[in-house]
Amino acid sequence: MKHILLFFALTFLGIASIHAQNDTLRVLSVANSFGVDAVEQNLHEIALADSHVLIIGNLYIGGCSLERHYNNAVSGEKAYSYRKISADGTFTTVENASLPQAFADEPWDVVVFQQVSQYSGKVETYEPYLGKLLQYATQHSPNGVRLYLHQTWAYSKDSTHPNFPDYNCNQEFMYRELCKAYKSMADKYHLGVIPSGTAVQNARKTYLGDTLTRDGFHLSYGLGRYLAAATYYAALYQTKVSGNGWMPPQLDPREVETARRCADAAVRKPFATSCMCRDYRR
């Protein structure tokens, strides 16, 4: 009798393990510091609160453009900091890693590319590099892969970024131009979009105002990064993040709820801002 019970227990554990593996989503971000802002904090916790398990890889070089990512894919240059969040939430870093090394590390279900922020609104900078990177990702994902673009955000109105003059130092103009570029590429290649830029612009139209960055272009360590992660989650799982059971303990719950609404609205309308009429200050 004990042997039978042990057999059924082991069988159940084996089925549960297979089920857990099948439910795990493996996401690789090929980006730069804007990718760090979006995926290295909050995203794993938001997903786990809804019983989703994420493995997150992030290939980081500060200020890295699509052109440089493609050149690194061809050369195999060990130029990246490869950050990884395992299924249990453990964070590890491998320095001097290569793009091919990261692609071989997991059977990635999702690969996300992103243009460097200063070129985000200049559609001529995307090609031929994006097309070649998409081809590379497909060829190196034998089990199939979902491909996304991570839409960056416009700089704050008072940003001192050296490339802000390329957009007339005008936040709205920069936002419109980056929307045009990302939409053009998403339509061309039938890509999913993670509309962090629109989520940030939505939030700027609420009582939060232009407070989401810490230096005029990178997101604030608190609410800004949470907003990007919430948008990432809603886009990946095609669900609403409103009502999610997790939030950073240091944040104001009313501001978090506003951020969630801004993320959900962005996923519904990735390339246009939405009216955020309700005010959660009360």
Level of helix content? 40-55%
Q: What does the main sheet amount to? A: 7 strands, mixed
Q: Count every beta strand, where a strand is a DSSP E run of 2 or more residues.
A: 7
Spans where pLDDT lies below 50 across 5 or more residues = 1-21
CATH fold group: Rossmann fold
Strand content: 5-15%
Write down the domain tally: 1
Would you give an account of this structure?
This protein is an alpha/beta fold and 282 residues long. It has a single domain (23-268), classed as SGNH hydrolase (Rossmann fold, 3-Layer(aba) Sandwich). Helices cover 44% and strands 14% of the residues. It has ten helices and seven strands. The protein has a seven-stranded mixed sheet, sandwiched between helices. β5 (110-113), α6 (129-139) and β6 (146-150) form a beta-alpha-beta unit. It is globular, with a radius of gyration of 20 Å. Residues 1-21 have low confidence and may be disordered.
